[in-house]
């Protein structure tokens, strides 16, 4: 809205029900109000008669902005405390994970009634297949799709690693806490842990990952001198390359070239065999 009114010369006033509805941040509201006034645009609250053309009116308006932010912070603190209390008593306070439906969605958290839907029933098969360790993630997801399950491949690992499915609740508001929930468990704890043991071995596809490649000995060791991003590696058309791992960097280098440069550097520190005699004399 602010960007729009700055570009539109025909607008000279912004109407708000009250000053605390103009912005939830008091300092942010005061700043924007002052900046808009510089270009001839007033912010007026229709439920609060304040003349902002004089210093006392501007001060009154800024105080309302700050008090509204303080009130919002109090409300937020009260809501968060209530959420934490509900979580520690085993009641969910966030949107339901895949495979569940809330029959009392508009009720308070304590009155929610969670049921396993059709996707959830099919997801049980996904847990069982993963626990066997015989199929890749892609194969399991494709199989579930054929059964009618609407699960997405990119969400598969995150879904299977959520303790909610074996009857527990976790949340960033209660870090490092695992609370027994009141909702029905989709799978047993034993099956959940078995499936996640397979996931931990390789979270992508249950195929052993090749961490070391002879052609890329500097992978994870060498770093870009500017961004300090470590190098990872890849192969393209039979040729190996190093590239920076972190997002926002775009350094690529031929692996054979970088390996050769590194060997040349190491040669500067190679011990000369002709100095063995002097070394023995020192030890003596």
Textual characterization of the structure:
Strand 8 and strand 9 form a beta hairpin. The protein has three domains: 87 residues, 3-Layer(aba) Sandwich (Rossmann fold); 102 residues, Putative Large Serine Recombinase, Chain B, Domain 2 (Hect, E3 ligase catalytic domain fold, Alpha-Beta Complex); 75 residues, no CATH class. It contains ten helices and nine strands. The radius of gyration is 31 Å and the shape is extended. It has 284 residues and is of the alpha+beta class.
Write the layout of secondary structure elements.
Blueprint: H1 2-7, E1 13-16, H2 19-22, H3 26-38, E2 42-45, H4 55-88, E3 100-102, E4 114-116, H5 118-132, H6 137-147, H7 156-160, E5 168-169, E6 179-180, H8 189-201, E7 231-236, E8 239-244, E9 252-254, H9 255-267, H10 276-283
Parallel strand pairs: 1-2
Antiparallel strand pairs: 3-4, 5-6, 7-8, 8-9
Helix pairs in contact: 3-4, 5-6, 5-8
Short description:
With about 280 residues, the chain is an alpha+beta fold. The chain folds into 3 domains: about 1-90, Rossmann fold (3-Layer(aba) Sandwich); about 100-200, Putative Large Serine Recombinase, Chain B, Domain 2 (Hect, E3 ligase catalytic domain fold), CATH 3.90.1750; about 210-284, no CATH class.
- Tally of contiguous helical segments: 10
The level-1 CATH class of the largest domain: Alpha Beta
The percentage of residues in β strands lies in 5-15%
Rg, Cα atoms, Å? 31 Å
Strand order of the largest sheet: 7-8-9
Mean pLDDT: 84
Question: Mind telling me the CATH superfamily name of the largest domain?
Answer: Putative Large Serine Recombinase, Chain B, Domain 2
CATH overall fold name of the largest domain? Hect, E3 ligase catalytic domain fold
Main sheet properties: 3 strands, antiparallel
The tally of structural domains comes to 3
The chain-level structural class is alpha+beta
Q: In terms of per-residue confidence, which ranges show pLDDT below 50 for 5 or more consecutive residues? A: 205-209
CATH architecture group name of the largest domain: Alpha-Beta Complex
- How many strand segments? 9
Q: Report helical residue fraction.
A: 40-55%
């Amino acid at each position: 809205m602010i960007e729009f009114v700055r570009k539109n010369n025909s607008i000279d006033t912004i109407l708000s029900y009250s000053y605390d509805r103009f912005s939830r941040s008091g300092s942010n509201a005061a700043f924007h109000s002052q900046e808009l006034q510089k270009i001839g645009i007033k912010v007026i609250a229709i439920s609060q008669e304040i003349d902002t053309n004089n210093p006392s009116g501007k001060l009154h308006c800024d105080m309302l902005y700050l008090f509204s932010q303080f009130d919002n912070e109090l409300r937020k603190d009260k809501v968060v405390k209530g959420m934490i209390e509900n979580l520690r008593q085993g009641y969910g306070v966030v949107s339901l994970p895949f495979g569940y439906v809330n029959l009392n969605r508009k009720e308070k958290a304590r009155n929610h009634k969670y049921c396993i839907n059709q996707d959830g029933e099919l997801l049980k098969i996904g847990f069982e297949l993963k626990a066997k360790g015989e199929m890749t993630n892609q194969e399991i997801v494709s199989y579930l799709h054929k059964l009618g399950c609407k699960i997405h491949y990119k969400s598969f690992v995150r879904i299977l690693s959520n303790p909610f499915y074996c009857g527990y609740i976790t949340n960033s508001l209660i870090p490092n806490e695992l609370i027994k929930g009141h909702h029905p468990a989709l799978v047993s704890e034993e099956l959940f842990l078995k499936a996640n043991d397979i996931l931990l071995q390789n979270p992508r596809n249950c195929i052993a990952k090749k961490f070391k490649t002879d052609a890329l000995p500097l992978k994870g060791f060498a770093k870009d001198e500017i961004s300090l991003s470590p190098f990872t590696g890849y192969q393209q058309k039979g040729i190996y390359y190093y590239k920076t791992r972190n997002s926002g960097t775009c350094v690529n280098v031929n692996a054979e070239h970088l390996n050769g440069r590194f060997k040349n550097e190491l040669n500067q520190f190679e011990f000369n065999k002709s100095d063995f005699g002097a070394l023995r004399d020192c030890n003596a």
